[in-house]
Amino acid sequence: MILIFDIGNTNITIGLFDDDKNQTNAKKVWRISSIRSQTADEYAIMLMDLFHYSGIKFSDIKYCAGASVVPHLNGAFEELAEKYLKQKIFFINSDNCAGLEFLVKNPKEVGADRIANAAAAFHLFGGESVVIDFGTATTFDCIDKDGKYLGGAIALGPSNAAKSLSLKTAQLPHVEIKKVSSAIGKSTVECIQSGLYIGYIGLIKEIILRIKNEMIVKHIVATGGLAYTIASEIKEIEKICPDLTLYGIKLIWEKSRK
Predict the structure, then answer these.
(1) Is 191 exposed, middle or buried (0-12, 13-18, 19+ CB in 10 A)?
(2) How far is residue 130's CA from residue 171's CA, in Å, rounded to a whole number?
(3) Is residue 37 situated within a structural domain?
């Protein structure tokens, strides 16, 4: 089996795949908090517990790959892989992405998760695609007809916007991002939820509109933790793929092995 790590600023998503090139969805997915002070041993204990309740042993893992936007944690996961899984983890980046071409000023600035999303979207849907990833940040990644990475856009994610609003104001609470039935809130919480939810729908639609003015777009897919909450309101989004980033990491790892 192949163990995949998507190491983000808020969460670490862990996916387990069979050694099957045609498997696009992980057979198991877990999410744990991304804590920069955690050691390899502490993450290994978490992983051991997750494996235990799923009937999986460390010895079942034959390969290990990852994408990280938290460089501080890379060493911990390299140690975890070598010490507990007896594997050398494969981390993707702009120099190690199975030949993905970049039409941006500095490819090294492109996050590993965005590279994985672009590779997966082109493989699954073809060119002229846009991936919207609803995570800590909301990212847009654009792929041309030949599968080349054009660039995209980055906005503050809804959850971080809600957190920032509560931290920077004396009387506004931190709220859950949820679908609202009315733009006019009847309480402070409802007002914040309306502004965040409807505001982000507007943000997404406007960026999509402007991207369409700059490139031909045939497919728009969404992924990330808040994809189901936000994307259902946006008709331009063709499909929600919760495992897209994990599959992209697996896909690049498979191509790199060749």
Answers:
(1) middle
(2) 38
(3) yes
For position 174, what pLDDT does the model report?
A: 83
Q: Which residues of the chain are under the pLDDT cut of 50?
A: none
The residue among 211, 197, 208, 199 whose CA lies nearest residue 235 is 208
Q: Which two tokens stand for residue 78?
A: 């390299």
Angle at 14 between CA 200 and CA 24, to 5 degrees: 80
Q: Which pLDDT belongs to residue 4?
A: 97
Q: What is the pLDDT of residue 139?
A: 96
**CB neighbours (10 Å) of residue 84?**
17
- For residues 246 and 13, the answer to whether their CB atoms sit within 8 Å is yes
Residues 6+ apart with CB under 8 A from 100: 115, 118, 119, 147, 148, 149, 252
- Which residues form the catalytic set? 113
Residues contacting residue 167 through CB under 8 Å, at least 6 positions apart: none
At residue 122, the pLDDT reads 95
Give the global pTM: 0.92
Give ∠ CA 142-146-147 in degrees, rounded to 5: 45
How confident is the model over 2-48, as pLDDT tens digits?
999 999 988 999 999 998 777 788 899 999 999 999 999 999 999 99
Domain limits for position 202: 107-248
Judge whether 143 lies within some domain.
yes
Cα 139 to Cα 66, 106, 136, 158, 227, distances in angstroms: 19, 17, 9, 12, 12
Pair (224, 189) in one structural domain: yes
